[in-house]
Structure to design on (427 residues):
């Protein structure tokens, strides 16, 4: 028992004194990850500077990214020795390893992106610039692209680094029972949690009515669950003092993964990375549904949004969600892309076909590893869900579990949205 206690003490001292260990939204770290935890303050600096949405303020963004503290994003992901399956799918979709940097460059230079596929033309889409001098569209694609998708990329790769430390890929020696590199595995895993939650949310996740929202994917999940009425353990809340169930699940997986890292169980750690990755798309998808439903005439009244803010937000959420859809079904991606692309023939010019977007994702929920109940339906503070955004049925959709099968009627609906995975074996 004394030997085991000594081993734990060494592990703690390797990455910071015990007094410096953190509780991150309830997750207990074993190592000091304060530096990772405070990366969200870089994002806050950006958002504080460009928050008035003027082009004069937005000019700050280019210098911030090219030579200011935003240089941080030029190095994301910080771990590239071994690419996780999750990050690999994204690079395969965009056909560029530096797709995050290309997204940011397109935003700060107010031009089109330069991916292999999945491009947007920000300069063409946000065409009110000359008359209004409002850069809200560019602001949204920049800040939400970095805060949410950029942060997820870093999280996936830090989790991969932890796995590599545990199986011996990182240091050449596998970690077994708190020996020979387990501290590196645990530290990288703790860092992934710190990146996901951030410092602004505090030790309890700021889940009080007066709490402060942060700038990370954890925050996004809490915000979107309120819009979709899925907050809390019962998944039916819409108030700020109730945590998103996606956050509860992800941090539960992270806590279990930390225990696996403690013993060097890289196989179990990999399973938890896969689960975390699957659930992390839910808030992005909720955001995508929220804004693209507004850009479609879902109510059938002949009106739809042409607001640049909503266009920018929708595209930023699609930035992280579309690679996962493509990995499951190139058919689904192609059906949704036309109604999602900025600077194309639909968004901002005519009513979009939200049904195509919704079905493209729903018909692939099983492959994505999520459920209709995970996503919910859009209330936006109203007593009834918005027309056209109603929740699908998991039993009919075959998305209850891995063994689920779509009912015949649903399979017919999904025929043009499912199949032909972009990543072999993904579906």
């Amino acid at each position: 028992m004394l030997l085991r206690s000594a081993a734990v003490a060494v592990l703690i001292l390797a990455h910071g004194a015990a007094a410096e260990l953190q509780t991150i939204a309830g997750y207990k770290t074993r190592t000091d990850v304060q530096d990772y935890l405070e990366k969200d303050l870089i994002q806050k600096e950006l958002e504080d500077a460009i928050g008035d949405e003027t082009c004069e303020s937005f000019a700050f963004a280019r210098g911030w990214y090219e030579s200011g503290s935003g240089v941080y994003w030029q190095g994301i992901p910080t771990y590239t020795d071994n690419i996780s399956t999750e990050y690999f799918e994204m690079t395969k979709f965009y056909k560029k390893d530096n797709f995050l940097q290309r997204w940011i460059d397109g935003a700060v230079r107010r031009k089109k992106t330069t991916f292999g596929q999945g491009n947007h033309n920000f300069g063409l889409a946000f065409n009110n610039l000359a008359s209004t001098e409002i850069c809200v569209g560019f602001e949204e694609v920049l800040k939400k692209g970095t805060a949410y998708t950029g942060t997820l990329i870093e999280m996936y790769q830090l989790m991969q680094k932890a796995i590599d430390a545990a199986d011996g890929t990182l240091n050449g020696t596998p970690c077994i029972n708190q020996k020979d590199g387990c501290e590196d595995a645990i530290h990288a895993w703790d860092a992934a949690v710190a990146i996901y939650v951030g410092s602004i949310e505090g030790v309890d996740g700021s889940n009080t009515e007066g709490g402060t929202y942060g700038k990370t994917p954890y925050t996004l999940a809490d915000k979107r669950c309120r819009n979709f009425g899925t907050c809390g353990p019962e998944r039916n809340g819409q108030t700020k003092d109730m945590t998103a169930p996606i956050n509860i699940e992800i941090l539960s997986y992270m806590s279990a993964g930390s225990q696996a890292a403690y013993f060097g169980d890289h196989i179990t750690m990999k399973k938890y990375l896969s689960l975390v990755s699957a659930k992390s798309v839910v808030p992005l998808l909720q955001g995508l549904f929220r804004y693209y439903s507004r850009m479609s005439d879902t109510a059938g009244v002949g009106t739809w949004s042409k607001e640049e803010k909503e266009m920018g937000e929708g595209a930023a959420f699609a930035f992280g969600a579309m690679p996962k859809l493509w990995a499951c079904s190139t058919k689904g991606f192609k059906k949704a892309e036309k109604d999602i692309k900025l600077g194309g023939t639909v968004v901002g010019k005519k009513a979009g076909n939200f049904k195509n977007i919704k079905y493209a994702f729903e018909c692939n929920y099983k492959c994505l590893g999520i459920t209709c109940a995970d996503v919910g339906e859009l209330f936006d503070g109203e007593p009834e869900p918005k027309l056209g955004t109603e929740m699908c049925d998991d039993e009919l959709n075959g998305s209850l579990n891995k063994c689920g099968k779509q009912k015949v009627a649903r399979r017919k609906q999904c025929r043009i949205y499912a199949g032909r995975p972009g990543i072999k074996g993904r579906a």
Remarks:
- The radius of gyration is 21 Å.
